[in-house]
Amino acid sequence: xxxxxxxxxxxxxxxWGLSEDRAHLWMIFGGVGGEFYLSAAMxxxxxxxxxxxxxxxxxxxxxxxIGAASFFESYSFWKKVKSGVEGIPYGSxxxxxxxxxxxxxxxxxxxxxxxxxxxxxxxxxxxACVAAMIVIYLVFNLRLNRVFYPLLARCFSVGLTTPEx
Length: 165
What we know:
This protein is an all-alpha fold. It contains six helices and no strands.
């Protein structure tokens, strides 16, 4: 419920609160950024239990594989770009590197992002997605693993009990 409320607030702000230019920047940034946060979300969905009508059982492994493979490919590519092994992917997928309408071209030309800013921004996004996946894994693993229930109950109940009268 909290996540849904936060997403509604973000959507409302981005729809009516952002200028057209700033909204365009977010759309361009989200093109490549979506490779990270959407595939990370697919990995995190592995632990989410949908209602029984959805029949999420075996399909969740396929979604996990697709999300993990996509995330790993994007993550390793941008780490290679950061180390200088690969170059920033200018141009578009359809018309090649010579077209100036690619996401990286627009960030560099229209919004004056430097190559350093582009590389660091996408690498920081990748690292943030890894951290989020680790947190989600730990939260769901600790929540679902019955071995940790007594330990968690003991840790969180310290000082919360009231003395009997």
